[in-house]
Amino acid sequence: MAGTIAGVMVYVAGGMLVLQAIFGLVQWFKPNRVIPVLFILLVAIGLLSSISGLAMTSQTDVPAAIAAPLWFTVLGFVALIIELVLHIAGFRGASKLAQLNRAEFPNS
What we know:
- By secondary structure, the protein is mostly helical.
- It folds into two domains: 1-30; 31-108.
- It has helices spanning 2-29, 34-57, 70-104.
- 4% of the residues are buried.
């Protein structure tokens, strides 16, 4: 069963990569605030699920041999926090761009 799940996860990861590339291209060619908000929410959900997973680790009977190493967990948290900061900056930039466009073209 683990082999089947591993094979499916390769396709899921590839699909997510394509989906995020499409979102990135849409944001590049037609900047708006929707995509940064979507990714801010996804990163927040990722942080909350990681924190809740760590909180529940002591309550489960998971052997230490199969638990993720501490450096891997810390690296994941650092990456999520950096992603959150970058997506917030993207939202602020898109908001400022929308504000400048409204000031330049008041009737559109």
